[in-house]
Amino acid sequence: MNEKNEQDIFKDLIDSIHVEDNADLERQEPVQVPIQRSNPPEAANQVQKDAPSDPLKNALDPQKVPVRRTDSVDEEELPRWLTEKRRPAQDAGSPHPAVSGGARVSNGMSLAPDDRDRTNAAKKTAAAIGERQIPADRTDVSYGEAQDPSSEGFQVNISQQDYERPSASLPEKDEQKRPPQPAPVSGKKKAKKKIKKQYRVGRALLLTLLFLALSVYLAFFAIHAFEDLTAVTLFGGDNTTEQQMTVDIPEGASTSEIARILKKSGVITEPFAFRLYVMLKQEDGFQSGEYIMTDKMDYDSIIYALQAGTERTDVVEIMFPEGSTSVDIAKKLEEQGVCSASEFLAALNGDGYNYTFVDNIPQNALRFYKLEGYLFPNTHQFFVGESVDSVINRFLKDFNSQITDGMRTRMNELNLTLDQTLILASIIQKEASDPDEMKNVSEVFHNRLRNSDHYPNLQSDPTIFYVERVIKKNIGMTNQAMYDAYNTYVCNGLPVGPICNPGLDAIEAALYPAQHEQTYYYFVTDNAGTYYYAETLEQHDANIAQADRVNAELEKNSSSAAS
How does pLDDT run along the chain (563 residues), one tens digit per residue? Predict the structure, then answer.
């Protein structure tokens, strides 16, 4: 066989490699199918020259077929007739018609029967090479039967791009094992993630703060409940002075209502703990009435007192007339064995009384007794040996019940505070005893207060009496500034504080003064109880002379009756 026949055979072998279009090339990276060649092109040519007598054997040997490679080997190293690209020949148009009974290759070339053994050997060799070098996941290269089922040839299918261009080198093993990188996150997604993170952090912080607040509250609750239950002070020492207070339990009061009353009175601090303790012990039979309790009583003592009732034999009843001063009240309390007069007077300037009107009393160092005017005169019951704080709370409680909303509204209309109203009422109380005359006297004082430019001083004699009979005898020192602050012949307008504890009639007179056509600025009274009112100083001087004549006549008659 000549050289021309060798070239034709090799070309036919090259054309037998079918090129198929792969539909998935856009999604997959092409993979180079390396076909091993034992010798370079020069060695192949040398083999051809050395063995020209058997070209068909060399052509069918897969280890010696100079197939075009797409790796680093240059195309110039191969013969031009091997690297030339031709469309595969069809069976009908093949220049080598098939020979019947021969082995057929995919381009239609037939082999002689005696060459079948070599063909089968070539097929097995190619299959073995494919198993070692072609990856298992490639589907565009196959070794299989020829188009004709009866043929014994083999077929290698390579994609168009694998055929026409060099392939990229296979990735290294470490790159194949590298995990896929996450897709880039957009700006909106980053913002949302940031907001979610901040929300989670804020929620966790809020829950932590709530947990801490709840823990602190439960801790304080437990401490106070323990102190109430055992009457033992855990913090602040147990040497605090015992406070005594009056507790009024209404008839038919439930345990919850009793707990609230005890809390308001200062006997306990945790009403819920007291209710729970009573429920667990299944205590009942609490009686209504007025009780004397202290803030040092434990739960068992409180329950026992409420069940025993208020049937006590050491109760005293004292009547305090309207206009009584604090000194008068203190003396009566001491006389009846209720409390010490000195302790009572000292407590009048103390704090700790749970009333708003007490908190609103002006703080003034020139005021002699802070609670003067607020000890409502009435008939009161006390226990023998009762604490001074409990006694004072009885007066304040009675006073608070006497001052109505209508009175407070009237005070606002007159632009007067409660303390100013009591100061004026205390002066009216000392100036008159009859309710009608109280209103007339009140009118004179209101006229002077409204025309303070011409009448800056109220000029009430009872204010001087208060200084001489109360302040100077109980102050223990000389305080001229305090004297002048109460003396309405010296101070302008109202004095610094009440001069007695007025009754309800005097308070009403201070709020609702009489109305006359004349504007009275003066008044005077004689010993018979007659009041003389004047608009001018001349009229007032004439009224004083008239009152003096009446008083002289009364004195004369009194002397005659005595003789």
Answer: 455 566 666 666 666 554 444 444 444 444 444 444 444 545 444 444 444 445 444 444 544 445 444 444 444 455 555 555 555 544 444 444 443 444 444 444 444 455 555 556 555 555 555 554 445 444 444 444 444 444 445 455 555 555 455 544 555 555 555 666 665 656 677 777 778 777 788 888 888 888 888 877 777 667 666 666 555 555 554 445 667 778 888 888 898 999 999 988 888 888 888 888 888 888 888 888 888 787 778 888 788 788 877 656 678 889 999 999 999 999 999 999 999 999 999 999 988 788 899 999 999 999 999 999 999 999 988 888 888 888 998 899 899 999 999 999 999 999 999 999 999 999 999 999 999 999 999 999 999 999 999 999 999 999 999 999 999 999 989 999 999 999 999 999 999 999 999 999 999 999 999 999 999 999 999 999 999 999 999 999 999 999 999 999 988 888 777 76
With tokens 């092409």, the residue in question is: 30
Tokens of 447: 């006229």
Give, in degrees to the nearest 5, the angle at Cα 425 between 420 and 427: 100
Backbone φ/ψ region at 552: left (φ over 0), alpha (ψ -120 to 50), beta = alpha
Instruction: Give the number of C-alpha atoms closer than 13 A to the C-alpha of residue 380, restricted to the C-beta side.
Output: 26
Alpha-carbon gap, residue 201 to 195, rounded angstroms: 10
Residue 97: helix, strand or coil by DSSP? coil
Classify burial at 79, counting beta carbons within 10 Å of its beta carbon; exposed 0-12, middle 13-18, buried 19 or more: middle
Rounded to 10°, the helix 271-281/255-265 angle is 140
Helices (DSSP H) in 178-314: which residue ranges?
A: 187-230, 255-265, 271-281, 299-308
Sign of CA dihedral 232, 237, 238, 240: negative
